[in-house]
Design a protein that fits this description.
This protein is mainly α and 191 residues long. It is built from 11 helices and 2 strands. Helix 6 packs antiparallel against helix 7 and helix 6 (69-81) packs antiparallel against helix 9.
Length: 191
């Protein structure tokens, strides 16, 4: 069987990326990810999410669990910290707050009341670090919970397995290999 989650390991010529990190992903789409690099993702959540392909695999896993709001919040905070124009800080901060922090947020992240209050207070005068505490708490939550499940999931195990160790009878626990198309949709590759 060919590589599972193939777009992570193979050159992709037909992908049209539309995410906020599209330029970065386009640049890396022609680079193969070595087995060694994939194994490094198991060393730390930081290694995983600071690699474009690792982040894409982790996002797909979280999406399959209906819990992608945490990584989306983390990525939004990283993007926010790169804001150069002081005039853009307040609207960007408000958007992140409304989408992830507010109790009426569409993608509310799981924060304790103290962190939520502190972040709300930071919104009075947004700075590049106004989400740091909330982002740190969400990172820790992902590290202790979803990252550990990711490492035991087919999303990671199929990438780290040697080629050809996929959908045979010897692999009854993982009878379905998964691949990600260019829009991070899961496509079953085994019957």
């Amino acid at each position: 069987m060919k590589h599972r989650l193939g777009f992570l390991l193979q050159k992709s010529d037909s992908c049209d990326y539309s995410s906020s990190q599209g330029k970065k992903e386009k640049a890396s789409s022609s680079q193969r990810v070595s087995q060694e690099e994939v194994r490094k993702w198991a060393d730390s959540l930081e290694n995983l999410i600071h690699h474009d392909r690792g982040l894409a695999a982790f996002r797909a896993f979280l999406k399959s669990e209906y819990s992608e709001e945490n990584i989306e919040f983390w990525v939004s905070c990283e993007d926010y910290k790169k804001t150069k124009s002081p005039a853009k800080l307040s609207p960007k901060a408000r958007k992140i707050y409304d989408e992830f922090i507010s109790v009426q947020a569409t993608k509310e992240v799981n924060l304790d009341s103290c962190t939520r209050e502190k972040t709300s207070h930071n919104m009075l005068e947004p700075t590049l670090s106004c989400f740091d505490e909330a982002q740190r708490k969400i990172f820790i939550l992902m590290e202790k919970d979803s990252y550990r499940r990711f490492l035991k999931s087919p999303y990671y195990l199929d990438l780290v397995s040697p080629p050809g160790a996929g959908c045979g009878p010897d692999n009854s626990k993982r009878s379905h290999a998964h691949t990600l198309d260019c829009n991070s949709n899961i496509i079953s590759q085994c019957a």
